[in-house]
Write the structure tokens for this entry.
Amino acid sequence: MIGVMRSEWTKFRSLRSTMWSMATVVVMMVGFSILISKVSLGMIDKGPLGDPAALSMAGAQFATLVVAALGVLVISGEYRTGMIRTSLLAVPRRGRMLAAKVIVFALAVLAVMLVTVLVSFFAGQLVLGEHGVALTEGDSLRIVLGSALYITATGLFGLAVGTVIRHTAGGIVAITVLLLILPQLATVLPGEAGAQVMKYITSTAGMRIMSPASDALLPPWTGFGVYLLWVAAAMALALTLLRRRDA
């Protein structure tokens, strides 16, 4: 398994999209943290400032889409170039190949995201000055670390969808629909049904881990647990199709 993971690491870091995607995420997260913190500070006389930790994570939703697209590219790129045939010849046990890809991707993205969210948080609090909070104050630690966990999980969601679709553009469209469009569709359901269903839909549930507490939605860790079930279901479907279909 170690040898397979080394191979996947080599493929992952050699992708041009990996470097650019990660660089984009870092710039986006830190940039939005500084920008939104400055804007909020300038409007403090017009209303409540909002949760300082959440303001520092303002770029997380945009970074999520970038990492999700990277997850799709990690597998769809191999189908596009035909490299997937070589990968499966080298590792006939397809479940092992997918598991190695998942582990390498998750560890690499999580490592980058942990550093990025911490830099974003401290940058935002530096801008907010006396209106900022400590990392250990209130829900700050959960919001900051939760952002890294949510973005990493969404990258795995993208990887699973990419394995199912096997096409870059189609996979990116599909993961965008699942994250952005599906929660909006739930809101059109009549009566209380829409509000109840929306709590459990992909990003609505997942983003609870990096959001302030809300009585109208699921508790933070419960919501993230529901989101992980979505990711696990997508990954199970990906593994099933990977085993059944020809490369």
